[in-house]
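Lecture 7 notes: from sequence to structure.

We start with a single chain of 835 residues. Read the sequence below before looking at the structure.
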Amino acid sequence: MRAYIIFWLFLMPFSLINSSSNNFVANGYCLGHQRSLLLHLKNNLIFNHEKSSKLVHWNKSDDDCRQWHGVTCKDGHVPALDLSHESITGGLNHSSALFNLQSLQSLNLAFNDFRSMIPHELHKLQNLRHLNLSNAGFEGQIPKEISHLKRLVTLDLSSLVTSDHNLKLENPNIAMLVQNLTDITELYLDGVAISSSGEEWGFALSSLEGLHILSMSSCNLSGPIDSSLAKLQSLSVLNLSHNKLSSIVPNSFANFCKLTTLKLSSCGLNGFFPKDIFQIHALKVLDISDNQNINGSLPDFSPLASLHYLNLANTNFSGPLPNTISNLKKLSTIDLSYSHFNGTIPSSMSDLTQLFYIDFSSNNLTGPLPSFNMSKNLTYLSLFLNHLSGDLPSSHFEGLINLVSIDLGINSFNGSLPSSLLKLPYLRELKLPYNELSGFLGEFDSASSPVLEMLDLSNNNLHGHIPMSVFNLRTLRFIQLSSNKFNGTIQLDVIRRLSNLTLLGLSHNNLSVDINFRDDRDLSPFPKVRILKLASCKLRGIPNFLRNHSTIVVLDLSGNEIEGPIPNWIWQLESLDNLNLSKNSFTNFEESISNMSYNLFLVDLSYNKLQGPISFIPKYATYLDYSNNMLSSIIPPDIGNYLPFIHILYLSNNSFKGEIHESFCNASTLQSLDLSYNNFDGIIPKCFAALSSSLRMLNFGRNKLRGHIPNTIFSNSCSLRYLDLNDNLLDGTIPKSLVNCMKLQVLNLGNNALVDKFPCFLSNISTLRIMIFRSNKLHGSIGCPHSNGDWNMLHIVDLASNNLNGTIPGALLNSWKAMKHDELGLEFSSTFIEN
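Now the structure, written as tokens:
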């Protein structure tokens, strides 16, 4: 008996240990060899920032795997491992302990930086059902061994397109990858370089009939979208955005009755979008934006519609917005911008209380603005560039306390600015430029508008004084009040209050801006303004605070009363790239210029009283206008050699003389050259043939040029829209090579000594609008019996003071159809360079 008791006592600890071990497993603890594998895995990983990794807390002395970050334990084994966002770098070698965790059903390595190929040894984890390698830094070919994981339900190999480490699927191709994945329900391959045709990838995926989610954006897929995809009747999410499908959207997509998300943005879609897709009751997200060639219109929406997000921006959708849009009770985001919708905005939209984001900008919408004051969650409202009209009742915006940005610019709204807009607590952007708003600008309360950053009310009819409360809004970065009827005097030093100000626009009002600052030592420094527009503000000098203002990029002081020399320091402002000092009374450059800023791209010094030579030539300029001054010469004379990027050069109405220097022909990017109203003499350089394909406008009118017009300068690639050689001493014939200028709209060769017949050959230039040959020596009859062309667009013909005779044939008069209209038309008002 005693021996039995001793034997029992001897066995008792083992029994208790065994009991404890069972309890250990049952409560989620990992078996010893599983813990060892995990620790071995951790010790062989490399981290960018080891201390920031939560894996550092995996500790040998800690037996409870439940406390180890990312580890799930069950029955002593590890079925799930989540190592995402752990800053892991370096590869997984073939002997990694990871591949011995045979119980793994879920592995997540997303958002790391492995910088290696996906390890082939993953196929050892035959129990895997969920594999997430998204944005993990893996690169190169996806190994065929992934296809051996036959139990996979979800597979995520996606990565950002901007990543330096992208995966590709070439060999194996997509068909080989998915051939064994018969249980797959979620497949994410976004950003994987697949580069296969619609027939190839479509047919390969059509066999996965249990697929719920298919996401393959930015895969370089081509189309067309294969009809075999219609087999995927279980799809709830389909994302094929940012590919090169060049395809219609199949009507069969409307049969995906479980579809909740359809994303086909920026795919080169064309044809008509099937209206029935809008009627899928389960559909919550529809995005076909940035497909400029896809057509369609909005349907009558069903009361059962579930749409939360609708994006048709930058498409060719057109037609009205249906009144039944009010059936989209769950709609939070709608973007129809840069499309062709017309008609009025239905007042029924006021019933959509869940609206968060509205963008109808750049359409053809008309009529009044409905109220959105029931949409308490609305944060963004943009309707700019439409044809909306009527007043803006203050009640429309009351209660929109979450509104952050509102843009109603470039419409025809009238009346006064709604006072409720000035009281929205989170409003950061208030933009209503190019409307017909009138009345006074109300006072701003900095307590009611504590975060306002952008205020743009330019190009309206607002009048009265600009309230000083504007300059108490300390968060303002952007103030644009130009082209109104504001009056009074503004002390420029009030902007010292606005430390964040980067743009100030007060141009073209009835304002007087005083740059004589108060002597107050406690005033803050001037803000680092980047854009300053004070045109027509009765300035009598250049604001002195700009002298050391290294951040200024755009400076417009045109149309003021500034006299004297242009100060030397203005050319040394290192960030300045756009300078307009036109329409003042500047007389000269202060001194020789050194340390010039090379950032200047646009300089306009026109309509001043500048004398002497041009001694300032900014090397990288694309636009220079020195016209309407009293300049007499150019230093250096070979100016064209110093302007490698010039597009527009205006030197008209000065006192230049001598021959036109051949260096102009070296300005290979020149599009518009105006040397008119000077005293240039000599011949027209033949070298202008080198600019024939780039020049849009050439004006040598009102000079003393002589000799023939070179026939060779109008080459086969001639791109001229405007040619003016009026009022010179040119002789010879009208160059036959002009017929090469097939886009020519204005031709003025008047007031010369040209000897020729009526130029019937010019009838082949169908774009001609104005043709002037007055005061030359043209002779013979006016008539073109053998002409193959027509002058349907010709509006003005001036043949006065020549030696022409006979009658004008009726057929010729009938061909001048544009003369029957009173105007040249809007198209003609476009610049010749743009056209």
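The mean pLDDT is 89. Keep this in mind for problem set 3.
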